[in-house]
Specification:
There is one protein chain. The chain is α/β, with parallel strands linked by helices. The chain has helices spanning 53-65, 87-97, 114-120, 135-142, 150-163, 182-193, 219-225, 249-256, 263-269, 274-287, 304-308; strands spanning 5-11, 15-21, 72-76, 101-105, 125-129, 167-173, 199-203, 233-235, 261-262, 290-295, 298-303. It folds into two domains: 5-243, Alpha-Beta Barrel (TIM Barrel), CATH 3.20.20.70; 244-310, Arc Repressor Mutant, subunit A. The chain contains eleven helices and eleven strands. The strands form two sheets. The protein has an eight-stranded mixed β-sheet. It is globular, with a radius of gyration of 19 Å. The relative contact order is 0.13. The structure holds iron/sulfur cluster.
């Protein structure tokens, strides 16, 4: 069983993405209300060298040596990858020693640090997030570490855009009654435009959120707000179903290890009916490797960290 790698995960935008988990579960600067990993026990801004980056790289090199491949090697996982002091080293090794592209999935909260921006510049694609328009809304949606300042993060995004030559994507997560009014979304859209991302993805809760009181935005509401974000905006919508994989227990566990996935999405990924997939899941359920649980009106499969924290 892989310790630091998970997937490859099928992604609507990034194809087959091999996740590299650089965070000790769950280490994050934020405790977002919509987080699918559950609440953050203690938010932190202290960057560390754990896990050992050489051990991470050794596992990745072995995976590639076995003939495996992915469209992207993605720094992400059970928390915020830029909390790792050496995430840039991983990105450099992917660039210099593999044929894969690199993707950094970050909440962006440490982009006020020049050293984080410098290392993030090594990635082929960087995806950051913006769900708020001022300090108060940032605290409501993202429940950040007390030291984090919304304006400094935004300034960091603008400085990053000036030097980063790769693709910069932004995710905006919309929560009914919290940040989805026209004026609220309009302010987020204007701030997003101020650092000129290559694309904006509007998302809402399609997976079990940390705060069970939040609900998803309707498709109609998302479509109504989309034009505010300009021509490069699109709806993230449902979970990706355009990448298929051959079923194996290891592939299934790899997919749900860090993030729960709906049963229907997994069935589509493995080209099975839901009944066929349920039968295949039975031995994994009996061993306790995964669990099934209802959330946001659907049935989800979780494993590892996701299962233990539901
Ligand atoms: S959604 Fe991402 S940034 Fe927010 S708490 Fe979860 S891991 Fe951290």
């Amino acid at each position: 069983m892989m310790k630091y790698l998970f997937g490859p995960v099928p992604s609507r935008r990034y194809g087959r993405s091999l996740g590299v988990d650089l965070a000790v579960p769950k280490t994050c600067t934020l405790s977002c209300r919509f987080c699918q990993l559950g609440p953050t026990p203690h938010t932190t801004v202290t960057r560390t060298a754990i896990p050992d980056i050489d051990a991470v790289w050794a596992e990745l090199r072995e995976w590639l040596a076995q003939g495996n491949t992915a469209d992207y090697i993605t720094a992400s996982g059970s928390g915020e990858p830029t909390l790792h002091l050496h995430f840039g080293d991983l990105l450099r090794r992917v660039r210099d020693e593999t044929d894969c592209r690199s993707l950094l999935l970050s909440n962006g909260s440490l982009f006020f640090l020049p050293e984080v921006r410098r290392d993030a510049c090594v990635a082929d694609v960087v995806k950051v997030s913006l769900h708020a328009w001022d300090q108060a809304s940032f605290e409501t949606v993202n429940r950040p570490h007390p030291s984090l300042r919304f304006q400094a993060i935004l300034d960091g995004y603008r400085a990053f855009r000036e030097t980063f030559t790769g693709r910069l994507d932004v995710e905006v997560f919309l929560i009914p009654g919290v940040n989805d009014r026209d004026d609220q979304a309009g302010k987020i859209a204007a701030l997003t435009a101020s650092f000129a991302p290559d694309s904006v993805t509007l998302n809402t809760s399609v997976r079990p959120p940390a705060d069970s009181s939040i609900t998803p935005c309707s498709q109609e509401r998302l479509e109504a707000l989309l034009p505010l974000f300009g021509p490069h905006a699109h709806l993230g919508g449902k979970e990706p179903q355009n990448v298929t994989m051959t079923y194996s227990q290891e592939a299934l566990v790899g997919l749900v290890e860090r993030h729960p996935v709906s049963l229907s999405s997994l069935a589509a990924t493995f080209e099975k009916t839901e009944d066929e997939l349920r039968a295949l899941l039975q031995p994994l359920l009996e061993r306790g490797d995964i669990r099934l649980f209802p959330a946001v009106g659907r049935l989800f499969v979780g494993g590892g960290y996701a299962a233990r924290n539901k």
